[in-house]
Structure formats: structure tokens, C-alpha cells
Amino acid sequence: MDLKSKHAAPVLTDPVPVSKSRLGISSLLSYSSPGAAFPSGLYLTIPRKKPVPGKLDDVRAAGWLDAMKASSPPRKKLTKDFNIEITSEDNDVAYSSWMIKYPSALTSFENIMNYAKGKRIALFLDYDGTLSPIVDDPDRAFMSNAMRIAVRDAAEYFPTAIISGRSRDMVYEFVGLTELYYAGSHGMDIMGPVRDLACADDHPNCIRSTDKQGKEVNLFQPASEFLPMIDEVFRTLVENTKGIKGTKVENHKFCASVHYRNVDEKNWPAVAQCVHDVLKDYPRLRLTHGRKVLEVRPVIDWDKGKAVEFLLESLGLGNSEDVLPIYVGDDRTDEDAFKVLREGQRGYGILVSSVPKESNAFYSLRDPSEVMDFLKLLVEWKKSKKGKGAL
Ligand SMILES: [Mg+2]
């Protein structure tokens, strides 16, 4: 089916309709796919101000642009765009009522710890926006030294893993602590010390390796067969987005990321179109939206939630009766992990957000500085237990 026509604004341009789902578009949007959720022809009635040469309707029809905007909410509401006055007090009220559903993990700390009695806490931490502030240049998303110390102290008492969309190497470089487990590329690239991280025979993608210090580690890479493909896509994306000012393409090994936070919004359609065009040739890859970033990932049943489950099992913490996993993250990719913990009634997701948003998390923290406070409280709590001989 090819709905691209010479006369009307095209709706779908992929020759194979199944490509809608294989591109992962359906999972990005609140509706399943344009064709399925809206009466056919809806897009044909949308007046276009100016016909754009090329095929920008691909990305419009697929909802990419809406998703790009939706996945990049402004930090603060731009009141000048509205004819109503939104005071900071209004925002505070909205945030406060949102917190009834997602209470602060700081003020609810005692409740969380009551539940943790007799259990081993396992900590899972996202990196960007959780341990480090979101900044314009992703290469400079450094965590503060105070945060590094807080994470290191926490890792002394609790098994701690960093689960990031970045490549494992990059997140390791930023965090720089050897005592942690690292899961890069949304959990598709997991590394842990051999002594702790079991590498069972039933995980065919688990291999013995050495880290940068020459220490023996176990690597688990459920999508290793995709490595050459992602590399090829990365190089094509770099080439094809060259002309769009502000675009930054990164190779995260299991995921190629196209950052558009520094791209003028009027050029977002061009960015989306570039990615769309490349993806069309790779039915085994799909698109996901992060914060001002388009990410091309393998179609594989693996996400941060699966990574949490894998790590818990591998660390011998799969028994949910004795273990309380706590996952702290700010991104929509973290929702998979929140969901695993919520649905299995296994532990708590904590969403880091300064604006109200729906989540599968149980609790909230406003920003990375509150994450740091939470980690410190955890350590103090553990120390006080230790002091009482309660370990
Ligand atoms: Mg994040």
C-alpha cells in the first residue's frame, strides 16, 4: 500500500504498512497509529501553509513532530505564549496536587524504610537528569563531585547500578566509580564484576571480558548482533544531518542518537525526516523519543525494565520477598523499569521531575539535588541500623 499520491497530501509513504509498527512509532504516541486511530483522510484535510518540497509529510503524518515536542517539555511554562496569566503560584499548586499521587521520596522516606525493614535494598539509577542536570551539550552532562560521593557512599551499602541510554563507556567515564554495575544503551550493554554478576549458561549473550583497568568482568549484551548495523546507521546519520545546524549524532553502540536540543525548532521536521529516511531501510531498527533526542534502537524485547530484572537475577536478588529494588529516573525510558517494579509489586520507582506528569513511579523527587539528598538519607538510615546492630 502506498498512499503517497501526486495530488493529495500523502499520509503514509512507506511502501509496506507494517513498517509503522516496526519503526516503533506506535509505541511513541498516545494513539496506536495515524491510520488506525483517526478516520482515514483526516490528514488530508489539514491545511498546509506552504507546500514543503520533499517528503516532510512522512514525519508529520507519523506524528513524529508531535512526539518530538511532547517529549521535550519546557522546564517552565512560557506564559508569554498564552493569553492567560500563569503565576508561579499556579504552578506550585499544580505540582503540589500532583504530589498527592506521587509523594516526595524525601518526605515519605520513613514510609519507604518501613517497607524496607528486613529487606535488602538494590539501587538502580538513571544518569542524565537524575544524577546530572540536563544541559545543552550532552558531552558536558557532568555529575557534581558531591553527587559522585553520594553515589559512592550508597554503593558501599547497597548494590547499585547505573542504567542509562548512553553507551556504557560514556556513562562509566562520567560516573567514574568502579564499584557500580553499569547498564548502557538502555540496558542492552551490562557490565559487572565477575565475582558478583553471575553469567549463567542460559544467557548466550553473556561473555567474560576485562574492563579498562584490566579487571575481569562479565558482559551481557542481548543485542550484540546489531552492533555493525547501528554503526552503519550512525555513520549515515552523521552524513545526512551534516547540513542541519545544531544536530548532534552519537553512537551509543546499541543505539544511535540524534540530539536536536540545539537545532532551531523550524528545522525539527528536517531532522525527523532525515532519521525517518534512514530508518526506512532498516526494518529491524526502531525509533524512540528521549528528551530532545531521537534514538534508533534494535527491535528487541529488551528495555530498562528487563535490565533491572536481569540484574536482580544475576546478583542473586531475584527473590522479591527479601529485596526492595528502588529505581530513580526522569525519562520515559525509565517508565519500563517503574512498570516492572510496580506490576510485580517488587519495589519503588521514583520519578525525577519538576513538572507534573503521569508515571508508573510511586514517588517523586524534584531534581538531581533532591536525588542526592535521598541517597544521603539512605546511607544515614543504613548506618544507623548498623549502629544498632540491626544488619
Ligand atoms: Mg534520564
Written account of the structure:
By secondary structure, the chain is α/β, with parallel strands linked by helices. Among the domains are: 188 residues, 3-Layer(aba) Sandwich (Rossmann fold); 73 residues, 2-Layer Sandwich (Alpha-Beta Plaits). Helix content is 34%, strand content 16%. Strand 9 and strand 10 form a beta hairpin. Helix 8 packs parallel to helix 14 and helix 12 packs across helix 13. It is globular, with a radius of gyration of 22 Å. The N terminus is likely disordered. The structure holds magnesium ion. Magnesium ion binds next to loops.
Total count of helical runs of at least 4 residues: 14
The CATH architecture of the domain at 88-188 and 302-388 would be: 3-Layer(aba) Sandwich
Query: What is the CATH topology descriptor of the domain at 88-188 and 302-388?
Result: Rossmann fold
> Can you identify the CATH class of the domain at 88-188 and 302-388?
Alpha Beta
What is the name of the CATH superfamily of the domain at 88-188 and 302-388?
Answer: HAD superfamily/HAD-like
Identify low-pLDDT runs: 1-54, 75-84
Ligand kinds: magnesium ion
- Biggest sheet, strands in spatial order? 5-6-4-3-2-1-11-12-13
- Taking the alpha carbons of the first and last residues, their distance comes to 64 Å
GO molecular function, one term: trehalose-phosphatase activity
GO biological process, one term: trehalose biosynthetic process
Catalytic activity: alpha,alpha-trehalose 6-phosphate + H2O = alpha,alpha-trehalose + phosphate
EC number: 3.1.3.12
